[in-house]
Each structure stands twice: as structure tokens, then as C-alpha cells.
Design goal:
By secondary structure, the protein is an all-alpha fold. The chain has two helices and no strands. The chain has one domain (1-66).
Length: 66
């Protein structure tokens, strides 16, 4: 699933991700890290916009706003 690699993670972060992995049933520590990242991004967007929104990639040849 994830295409990330934890190469320079602190021991405390690795330990926390291993606990999360065991509790939530993730197959790898990278799956747990991706889950945490997605929750953080979702909560950040909610704080900025005031609403829970889904982020989509913007495609097309439209001019960017100035």
C-alpha cells in the first residue's frame, strides 16, 4: 500500500508506530505511518477550512488564480 520508507525515524516514533500497528492490525509499520499522516492532514484541513473536506488532485488546463 504505502510507497514511503522510514529511514531516519526516532526510536520513540518507531515504538509508537509499532504499538499502533499491533492495536489497529496494520501489516507493516509503513501502513501505520501512512494512517497517522492521513489523519494529521485531514485534521489540518479541517482546522483551516472549518469543515471536513476531501482533497482531490486538480487536473486540466485552467489558468491558476493570481
Amino acid at each position: 500500500m504505502p510507497e514511503i520508507e522510514l529511514t531516519q525515524a526516532s526510536p520513540d516514533l518507531v515504538k509508537a508506530l509499532e504499538i499502533l500497528m499491533a492495536r489497529e492490525g496494520f501489516e507493516t509499520i509503513e501502513d501505520a505511518a501512512e494512517f497517522v499522516f492521513s489523519v494529521v492532514v485531514r485534521e489540518g484541513v479541517k482546522r483551516v477550512t472549518g469543515k471536513a473536506r476531501v482533497l482531490y488532485a486538480v487536473e486540466g488546463n485552467k489558468k491558476p488564480c493570481a
